[in-house]
Every structure is written in C-alpha cells, then in structure tokens.
Amino acid sequence: MIILLADNLFSLQRLSLCTKYDEFSTKYVSLQLSSDFECLVQVFSKREIDPSYCVLNCSVIKCSNFEKPNLLLEIGSVLKNLKSLETSSLQVVDPVSNIKVVSLSVVFTNARLTSKWKSKNEVVVSIVREILKMFVFTNNCIIFPNCVGASKSLGIHCLLIHDTGGVCGRITSSTRVNIVNSLSKSWFELQKPLVCPNPNNAMYKLFKSHCVFERTTESPLISHNILLVGPSGCGKTTLVKSVAFDCGVPIITLLGPEVSSSDPGQTERNIKELFEEAKLISKEKPGGMCLIFPGPSRCPCRERKCHPFCSNHLVSFGSVGFS
Predict the structure, then answer these.
(1) β-bridge mates for residue 291, sequence order
(2) Predicted structure pTM score
(3) Nearby residues of 31 by Cβ (< 8 Å), 6 or more positions away
C-alpha cells in the first residue's frame, strides 16, 4: 500500500490503516524501513482510510548505530524514498511497560543552543521528561519531537535514546532521566562525496594524518591551516570533504554571498559569528575539531598572468577549537 507521511501532533507515532487490519489495532509494531532503521508506531484502524493507502508518522526510529557521521542524512534519505508498505513487515513488539531509568543524548539544532542550555541541565531534564511522556520507545531509538511545542522552545532537533534497561515502554513521573551528552546536529550531518579519492593516495594520507595529529596534539607550534592549490576540477574540495567524513569532523562552509553585507561592519560580525560557532562545535566532544572551509575562489591576478600560480584555483581551510 502507498505510504502518506504525516507530521503533526494528531498523528504522533501512529500508523493509520483501513479496517481490514483490525488485528493490529492499538498495538505497537515495528516497521522495517531499511537494513539499519526501524520505525516504532502504534497502529489504528480507520474506516475513512482507503485500503490502498496508509498514513505513517516516523517520530520514533530505532537505529543500529548512533556513531554514523551521516546518521541524520541517512534517515532523511530513507524517509524520502519510502513509498510503499508491506503488512508482512509489521512485527508486534513486546507489551509496553514503564521505564525506570533512561539514558539519552540531546541533539540541538545549532551549537549556540547547545552551549546555552548545557549549563541549565535541570531545566532541560524537566522539559525532556515532558517530551518523552508522549512517546513509547526502547534502546537505541531516535525521537524526532518536531511537532511538540516544548522541543521548539529549547531548539531540540532530536533525542538519542541510549539505554532504557532493555524495556520497551513509556516514562512516568518517577522515571530517572539521565542526559549523558548534548551535541549539535552538525556531528550527524557529515556528507560523503559521491566520488572519493583513493585512501592510498599520498595527498589523502598527508591530509588525514594532519587532521588526526592536530586532534591529539595541543602544541601551539602546530599550524591549523592548510592551503590547497590546483586547477579547477582536480579534486581539492572532494579531498577536504572525504577526509572530514572519514575523521568524523564537521565542516562549516564559508561562502562570500552568505557572509557579505552592504551594512558597515556586518560582514566582519558574520565571519566572527561563524568562527565562534565552529569553536562551540569543537568543544562539544573531547578532542573535538571543526573545519572552516571557504568556498573555492579564483586568484585575483588570474587575468594578468603575473605569476605562475595565478592560473590556479585556491582552496583554503582552517581547523579551530581543539580541546
């Protein structure tokens, strides 16, 4: 049957089917989305639903691995390509019970919000508790509370549920909520280039070793900047993005049109805010690192041919905020 995705409070964690599937009604089931992801929903049968369609809300997704650098992008891709549902893939989960202790990480929409709320743990725990009361979940689940007003007030993008004691259920007022980490979503949106350089390539090895060395060294003598020079299409940008993906390092791209402004001093403020955000991102993890990657630009003397390097494109990036 054809899937219609819904994202509103009235369809929260629900799968609506026609009355033909009354056997699943009010039960919680696990729906296989891909080899790595499952969706946990409660089934409701409705007369107004056509047998050829179903309405699905993917607020709670069970994941096999939280450490993927492109976790959120993979989930988005899976949901985008989700077109049909086979009822044979529905598996009824164990009876829902009360969770006594839950350990989780909070993923905020940006690094500034992460820094703002990290020092106000009691407030965050209180609001997260109210959000979790609306869902049924288990170990290794990702909860997207997009349509819950409380999550918007804090700027919460999603919640990563690490451990519930092996219980599939819901929390109560007596449940102990432990927030083990607070991160921005930049750590989970690293995009791997479609064409990657050979890992045995000398430039790739040099570049990667530089990134790894910087993350494990606090010496002030280490240069945090690299300048790549080469003709258009030789793979400078691909090299940077590929190494960043393999090392699990977020990238902030600095594009001229996005930071430049006609107002006096605004361009400088925009660039300063970008560097501050990169530093905040790097501090979210021990030994954290963030790359600032200016978009490719042409040498200003290209037309005059005053120097052999003027015919090349330049790509420069810097790494900031080691802890």
Answers:
(1) 251, 319
(2) 0.78
(3) 15, 38, 39, 40, 41, 56, 85, 89, 90
